[in-house]
Design the sequence.
């Protein structure tokens, strides 16, 4: 894959990039590293997608046809881990690398060397995780939430590699976030205040703080697991005076902010795209910033809504229910603002806009099911069923993943200098849109009807919707090969893009030529601040 | 069948078109259930769902109108407004009001769920990998009715070698039996990993956590059989440990309980008698298929490496005492559990005898329930 | 100039990350304190020493149930001698649990108590409990393990049944492991 990109860079004779493979290994250029992150993320997206298709193939019909329950559990676990930590998070880091310096008029990320390290840790972490699939007792099989004691006393030996891989991912994320924060706070072009930054930069700034706050907690919880498994401590074992529920509290203290880590940058992307294609300024910029910040704050105090059924006292249930319901307020503000941005605009519907609008609609549906899940008494029926699966896939796939695709279509002309093929792009969108809804909408029904999640086989009354869901999954999955084709085609050639690319686009990244030169904004004098917030 | 299937497809289609059909068919909606609590939960679910639908119609409606009317191709000029404090204030306040209104019934329902009162019957529910154990608490712990409840669906149905019958994967050998209109308290805990005991028709979902006991209670208003499943990933056969509760009239319950108590006494007798090889083999096969086949497979070949084959294994070719020891006490560091507490001596003797003589193992030896009992007592 | 600023900020953020790693571990004792205060996970406290201060409340009767269970791999026979007791708050009660080790080897066990409803955990005071110590039984041996407790006279009105459950864990290996490292 890297060969393709190299070729492109050979084509344009800008100064800078070294030749050969070592360019990618040693690079400290934010654009190169952004590219590496994005390709890595796409590879992981396909890997995690393959796992998902194994799951959906097994669930196509009742009965066990393709895999054994043990392997099925490994698939659900690896699918979750690879998609969350391998696909979605690195994709946003990739976008951050490409865009943040260009959007704030900085020549590069603040800490280029560390930037290189934080990327190159990832292939090792995920290589190790993926290799556990070939170990004798198999890969981790305890779900991506790895509740103790299933993940400690009852785990396969590969759990140790899993723990080490999580540590590596954590270190990579923390280094990446430090880099983002330092870049944003210290490297903005003179004259750009915080409240003049594009929303993508804002949401990433908040995300980076979230990452620094919670990735170490994740590292802590897996370290405790490691100690329980190998060093005889009993953090999570009742026999030694520990408590398995403690694991869940610590995990979700990380886990809930993690949810927003995966969606806040998506908010930023969509807040960039909708104004461009509505040809109208983003409605309520300031309230968008405040809403993002309050979502981030609330994410720290609602974690136990993932644990309504563990048997908390009434007061605990009530508190976490109320706090969770509150999140609907800032989230609602965001949705209303996007709709108000579209209102009385002059819209066109290029591929990025299609993905962005689908994001708003489908993410909102995910938000609705989230609000339903927040109602603790009802959650007793929803919890750990396919209703939850439908909910978080609605916020993660047509949410985060669609926003990433929207971002790629939106900025790829800037990255490559070529326009993508609009017809193919729209085809990709419609296949994805239809596929995703066929996959996940019926899961609401089977969840409400009582199908638990993470089961390899199911009762007969769930058969029809599972079959529909599997068909949708294959449509969605294979459409992504079209995405791969479109991206490669765009890298190789296409209609040359102008500097502004989209006639409604505003922001510093659109003031540099397309493709963006290897080095941009090397001096503050070159920055046209006026254009930045046009 | 085909017709039914087609009509269900139609239902699915019509659902996508109109959400009002959601009220009609339980297979696409939450069950109303048979307790006061489950009905409250259902109502709550429908209210919040209705609220979401209304907000959805407003928001998506505005988007659709906007997408239809505010297009560049219609030659419109974009407006220039980009904030409106009044509007922003309003759409912050309105959701808060809606949420406050929603919080009221939610809090009431939660309060009702947590209203622990005196129960007439206490049942301990204990999750095992991968079955449930029910103990009807009695003042004399030696006289208690206590049994395992595990999946009845044969492996052949799961592996598509036989047609799947009604209640596929939702049928157990021993149902939990409770009387109607009676307050029953469940004390939920687990043996090994976390499970979750879920009966949708009672709106009970309680995590079963090793070392901790959590309570839940119910008053079923209607007799019938209510089915649920384990709702927390608990390892390989998480999908194969259903929960089945039979709610019966009070008289029927008392009869049933008395019978069960008599059965428990009878087991002592069964254990005392001398069994023939054929009797042991027949009982052993039944026990094996119910308890062991999920891991070691019906043909004894297992699923190596996690679940070793029993055909010609050192365990079988070695002395019978070693074999018995593993079945009774499990094998540390592996998935092999201790069955000493789960099976009675007759079942253990039978299954050990069966394993040593099935699938061409032909060891020719056997062990009597009496001997198993002695070994357990005298170890 | 900017380089210096970057360095400072990196140090601060790095320190924050390390601090949060520590916070992850600090959640363990925080959780315990929180549970002690609220009875969140139904764990009972240690030995109770203020038995004299309790006033017997003869008007109220509270039912206490005893559950006894083995964790996976624990072969002992383990059961309460009585299943339920009706007691007056403030009054000293005693009962016992029967255990027998049918295994071929000596086994060390730790009993872990849990109370439901959770809010009752703070009102159950144990003056003597086999769960305070590890218990060791030789092969074939049996014994009655004593429990003495008081239900606090302040126990909330709406609690009329509480369940005290013990789970026995086989900790022979851990003990050997500790002995080996000592």
Sequence:
């Amino acid at each position: 894959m890297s060969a393709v990109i190299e070729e492109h860079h050979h084509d344009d004779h800008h100064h800078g990039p070294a030749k050969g493979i070592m360019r990618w290994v040693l690079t400290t250029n934010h654009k190169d590293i952004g590219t590496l992150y994005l390709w890595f993320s796409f590879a992981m997206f396909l890997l995690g997608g393959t796992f998902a298709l194994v799951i959906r193939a097994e669930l196509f019909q009742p009965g066990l046809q393709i895999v054994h329950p043990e392997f099925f559990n490994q698939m659900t676990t690896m699918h979750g881990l690879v998609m969350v930590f391998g696909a979605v998070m690195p994709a946003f880091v990739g976008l951050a690398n490409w865009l943040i310096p260009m959007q704030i008029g900085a020549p590069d990320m603040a800490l280029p060397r560390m930037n290189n390290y934080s990327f190159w840790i990832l292939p090792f972490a995920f290589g190790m995780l993926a290799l556990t699939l070939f170990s004798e007792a198999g890969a981790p099989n305890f779900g991506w939430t790895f509740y103790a004691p299933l993940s400690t006393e009852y785990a396969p030996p590969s759990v140790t590699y899993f723990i080490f891989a999580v540590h590596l991912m954590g270190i990579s994320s923390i280094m990446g976030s430090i880099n983002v924060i330092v870049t944003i706070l210290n490297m903005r072009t003179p004259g750009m205040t915080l409240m003049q930054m594009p929303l993508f930069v804002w949401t990433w700034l908040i995300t980076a703080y979230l990452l620094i706050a919670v990735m170490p907690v994740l590292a802590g919880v897996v370290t405790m697991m490691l100690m329980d498994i190998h060093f005889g401590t009993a953090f999570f074992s009742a026999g030694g005076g520990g408590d398995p529920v403690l694991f869940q509290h610590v995990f979700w203290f990380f886990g809930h902010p993690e949810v927003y880590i995966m969606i806040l940058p998506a908010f930023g992307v969509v807040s960039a795209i909708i104004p461009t294609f509505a040809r109208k300024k983003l409605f309520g910029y300031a309230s968008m910033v405040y809403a993002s910040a309050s979502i981030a704050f609330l994410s720290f105090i609602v974690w136990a809504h993932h644990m309504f059924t563990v048997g908390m006292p009434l007061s605990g249930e009530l508190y976490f229910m109320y706090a969770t319901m509150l999140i609907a307020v800032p989230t609602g503000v965001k949705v209303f603002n996007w709709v108000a941005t579209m209102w009385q605009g002059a819209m066109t519907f290029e591929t990025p806009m299609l993905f962005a609008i689908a994001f708003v609609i489908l993410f909102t549906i995910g938000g609705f099911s989230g609000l339903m899940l927040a109602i603790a008494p009802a959650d007793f029926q929803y919890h750990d069923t396919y209703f939850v699966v439908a909910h978080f896939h609605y916020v993660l796939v047509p949410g985060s993943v669609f926003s990433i695709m929207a971002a790629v279509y939106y900025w790829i002309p800037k990255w490559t200098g070529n326009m993508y093929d609009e017809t193919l792009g729209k085809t990709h969108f419609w296949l994805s849109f239809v596929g995703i809804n066929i996959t996940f909408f019926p899961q609401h029904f089977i969840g409400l009807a009582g199908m638990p999640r993470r089961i390899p086989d199911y009762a007969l009354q769930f058969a029809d919707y599972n079959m529909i869901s599997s068909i949708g999954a294959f449509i969605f999955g294979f459409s992504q090969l079209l995405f791969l084709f479109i991206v490669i085609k765009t890298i190789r050639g296409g209609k040359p893009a102008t500097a502004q690319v989209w006639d409604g686009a505003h922001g510093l990244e659109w003031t540099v030529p397309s493709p963006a030169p290897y080095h941009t904004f090397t001096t503050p004098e070159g920055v046209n601040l006026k254009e930045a917030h046009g | 069948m085909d017709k039914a299937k087609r009509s269900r497809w139609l239902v699915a289609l019509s659902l996508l078109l109109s959400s009002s059909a959601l009220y009609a068919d339980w297979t696409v909606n939450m069950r109303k259930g048979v307790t006061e609590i489950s009905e409250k939960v259902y109502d709550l679910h429908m209210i919040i769902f209705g609220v979401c639908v209304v907000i959805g119609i407003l928001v998506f409606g505005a988007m659709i109108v906007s997408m239809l009317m505010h297009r560049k191709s219609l030659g419109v000029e974009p407006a220039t407004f980009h904030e409106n404090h009044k509007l922003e204030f309003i759409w912050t306040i309105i959701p808060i009001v809606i949420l406050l209104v929603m919080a009221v019934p939610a809090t009431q329902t939660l309060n009702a769920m947590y209203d622990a009162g005196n129960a007439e019957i206490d049942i301990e529910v204990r999750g095992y990998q991968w079955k449930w154990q029910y103990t009807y608490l009695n003042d004399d712990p030696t006289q208690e009715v206590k049994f395992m409840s595990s999946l009845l669906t044969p492996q052949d149905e799961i592996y598509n070698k036989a047609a799947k019958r009604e209640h596929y994967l939702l049928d157990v050998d021993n149902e939990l039996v409770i009387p109607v209109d009676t307050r029953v308290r469940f004390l939920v805990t687990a043996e090994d990993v976390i499970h979750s005991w879920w009966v949708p028709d009672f709106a009970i979902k309680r995590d079963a956590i090793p070392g901790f006991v959590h309570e839940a209670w119910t008053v079923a208003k209607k007799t019938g059989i209510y089915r649920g499943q384990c709702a927390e990933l608990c390892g390989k056969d998480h999908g194969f440990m259903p929960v089945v509760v039979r709610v019966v009239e009070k008289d029927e319950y008392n009869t049933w309980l008395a019978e069960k108590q008599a059965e428990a006494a009878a087991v002592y007798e069964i254990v005392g008698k001398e069994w023939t090889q054929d009797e042991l083999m027949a009982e052993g096969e039944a026990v094996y298929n119910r308890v062991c086949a999920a891991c070691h497979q019906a043909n004894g070949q297992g699923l190596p490496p996690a679940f070793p084959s029993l055909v010609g294994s050192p365990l079988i070719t070695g002395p019978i005492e070693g074999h018995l020891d593993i079945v009774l006490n499990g094998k540390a560091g592996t998935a092999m559990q201790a069955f000493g507490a789960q099976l009675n001596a007759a079942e253990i003797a039978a299954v050990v005898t069966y394993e040593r003589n099935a699938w061409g193992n032909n060891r020719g030896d056997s062990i009597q329930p009496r001997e198993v009992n002695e070994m357990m007592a005298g170890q | 100039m900017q380089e210096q600023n970057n360095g400072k900020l990196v140090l601060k953020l790095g320190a924050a990350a390390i601090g949060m790693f520590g916070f992850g571990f600090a959640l363990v004792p925080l959780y315990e304190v929180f549970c002690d205060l609220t009875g969140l996970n139904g764990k009972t406290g240690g030995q109770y020493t203020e038995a004299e201060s309790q006033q017997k409340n003869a008007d109220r009767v509270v039912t206490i149930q005893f559950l006894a269970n083995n964790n996976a791999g624990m072969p002992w026979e383990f059961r309460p001698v009585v299943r339920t007791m009706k007691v007056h708050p403030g009054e000293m009660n005693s009962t016992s649990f029967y255990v027998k080790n049918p295994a071929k080897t000596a086994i060390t066990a730790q009993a872990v108590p849990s109370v439901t409803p959770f809010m009752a955990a703070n009102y159950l005071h144990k003056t003597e409990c086999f769960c305070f110590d590890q218990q060791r039984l030789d092969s074939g041996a049996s014994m009655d393990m004593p429990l003495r407790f008081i239900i606090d006279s302040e126990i909330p009105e709406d609690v009329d049944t509480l369940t005290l459950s013990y789970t026995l864990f086989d900790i022979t290996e851990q003990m050997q492991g500790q002995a080996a490292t000592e």
